[in-house]
Amino acid sequence: MTKADWLDFFEAINVRSATEEQIAATLAAGEFQDDAPAVEAAPVQEAPAQPIFAGA
Asked: 0.85 exceeded by the pTM?
């Protein structure tokens, strides 16, 4: 369940908005997933392989 889904459900049942404390407690309990997008790491670019030279 997303945070938005949970808020809609909460408001339908309780006929009021949830407090910040209730939202935080519910998120901590794992009842919904945070809507904030995960920060994506930049793709890793591998360095080109160095050529191996036969004995000099």
From this structure: no
